[in-house]
Amino acid sequence: MARKQSNRRKNKQYEAAKKNLGKPFFESKEIAIYQGDTLELSSKLPANAIDALITDPPYCSGAAGCAVMADPSKKYCQSGKTLGRPSFGGDFRDQRSFKYWCSLWISQAFNACKDSAYCLVFIDWRQLATMIDAIQAGGFCYKGLISWDKGGSARAPHKGYFRHQCEFIPWGTKGIVPRLTDRGPFAGSYSIGVKQTDKHHMTGKPTPLMQKLVQCVPSGGLAFDPFCGSGTTLVASVLEGRYAIGFEASEQYCEIAARRIEAAQRGELLKFQKQ
Ligand SMILES: C[S@@+](CC[C@H](N)C(=O)[O-])C[C@H]1O[C@@H](n2cnc3c(N)ncnc32)[C@H](O)[C@@H]1O
Fold first, then answer.
1. Residue 264 domain-assigned?
2. Is the CB of 38 under 6 A from ligand 1?
3. 56 CA to middle of ligand 1, Å?
4. Measured from the CB, is residue 61 less than 6 Å from ligand 1?
5. 72 in any annotated domain
6. Which residues constitute the domain of residue 186?
7. Is residue 69 part of a domain?
8. Which residues belong to any copy of the DNA methylase N-4/N-6 domain (predicted)?
9. What is the pTM of this model?
């Protein structure tokens, strides 16, 4: 696996962003993971430090009034088989409080972003409108919608349904969209299937998809994922020569992310082993 080289000199932007965050759970070369609550950690980020907020928060989709849908191990693994992927927290909010909560962490990230920084947030069909509101409430100018087509194996509750085959990535910028000369325009739609060997989280995103999305970060620039889970954004950043900081509440997922990053830095993609 080829790995693009980033500028290995001490990166002032990356060092400044970490300055008040305390001891990382894991750090290696250009990537740092902090374990804790994103609202608490994000409040310690300095202004003007980040090139892109790229994240995949708990969607809290269908959580209201339905205890089953607020339990990720039942919601995302309907067969009941988690295959050893740990469950995770934060997926319980109803739509109103989800919007309020998202606007809080997005506005914290907005403060930490540079002018013209990108904001890319994953969401499903059910919470899409809510997330578009939250992105704007958080301060970003909403600029468009990227679709991620997961393919024909995506779930349909029964035959009468059109498959829930796509997830969405509403995107925006802090002020004007930068006029890039070295890369872009970026595709607005991606058809990339989920490979079980590349899925280390119940809701893990494909590494090749995240490699496409981190292209909005300048080479050697800094990506920020406040819900990094198994670390797919961070692995993609390694592979594409970007710096990255991730926050994650679950110790188990911090550990999984760290192992994946170490492998990527050796030039390997760690394979998920089912249990
Ligand atoms: C949808 S998953 C991210 C999956 C990731 N994209 C991947 O490919 O592995 C969201 C993650 O956010 C974490 N999380 C939930 N609430 C959090 C909070 N308040 N602070 C930090 N992390 C949180 C969960 O533990 C979960 O791992």
1. no
2. yes
3. 7
4. no
5. no
6. 12-54+95-209+231-240
7. no
8. 50-175, 196-258
9. 0.93
